[in-house]
Write a structure and sequence with these properties.
The protein contains nine helices and eight strands. By secondary structure, the chain is of the alpha/beta class. It has one domain (about 5-205): P-loop containing nucleotide triphosphate hydrolases (Rossmann fold, 3-Layer(aba) Sandwich). The longest helix is centred in the middle third of the chain and has 17 residues, at about 100-115.
């Protein structure tokens, strides 16, 4: 199989990570969760007590941080942090960190290096529009705020977190606003991306729809 890049963008909770992971397994290519990279930096900053509004310290933190993916695990400075980066506190602050231009530039450099080495499917907010404008395939996943909040609520409740649906809706709406309005590489549907509304669709249906588009392409 030739080396390919598949970009999957969309707002928080649209199902990007779940779908991209399954497609990576079916196609035998590498899955890169770019959102998890920003979550990892946010988690590290919170753990170190760094003010989320202190851009200079966050940029320096980013420069001295190692992030890698192996066997569907994300490593932060050599430690697996799959669960830690999904905490609500991280979710509530990650968009603030991700809007910092210098932080995004460092992350984009790492993401492009990964795609130079092997075939990838990457999901995020700006993969098709900024990171890989010439990606072989581009998809934009979306769903209603209520649908996305319900999914996130069930995910967190199943992990034992004490959350309310109201808090999650508010968090998603805030993240959507920050992601869409940030100055540098905002969340936007690339002109040549195929939009897939995942509301009222099963994961299998979404995967099947995307794989059909790839096969036809």
């Amino acid at each position: 199989m030739r080396k390919i890049v598949i970009a999957v963008d969309g707002p928080a909770g649209a199902g990007k990570s779940t779908v991209a992971k399954i497609i990576a397994n079916k196609l035998g290519i590498n899955y890169i969760d770019t959102g998890a990279m920003y979550r990892a930096i946010t988690y590290k900053a919170l753990e170190k007590g760094i003010d989320i509004n202190d851009n200079d310290r966050l940029i320096n933190l980013c420069k001295s941080t190692e992030i890698d993916f192996q066997d569907e695990n994300i490593y932060l400075d050599g430690k697996i942090v799959n669960e830690e980066i999904r905490q609500l506190q991280v979710s509530s602050n990650v968009s603030r960190v991700a809007q910092i231009k210098e932080v995004r530039e460092i992350m984009v450099y790492l993401q492009r290096k990964m795609a130079d080495r092997y075939s990838v499917i990457m999901d995020g907010r700006d993969i098709g529009s900024y990171v890989f404008p010439n990606a072989d395939y581009k998809f934009f996943l979306t769903a209603s705020v209520q649908e996305r909040a319900n999914r996130r609520y069930m995910e967190l409740k199943n992990k034992g977190y004490d959350v309310t649906i109201e808090d999650i809706i508010k968090d998603i709406e805030t993240r959507d606003k920050i992601d869409s309005e940030r100055e540098f590489a905002p969340l936007v549907k690339a002109k040549d991306a195929i939009e897939v509304n995942t509301s009222n669709k099963s994961i299998d249906e979404v995967v099947h729809e995307i794989l059909n588009c790839i096969k036809m392409g």
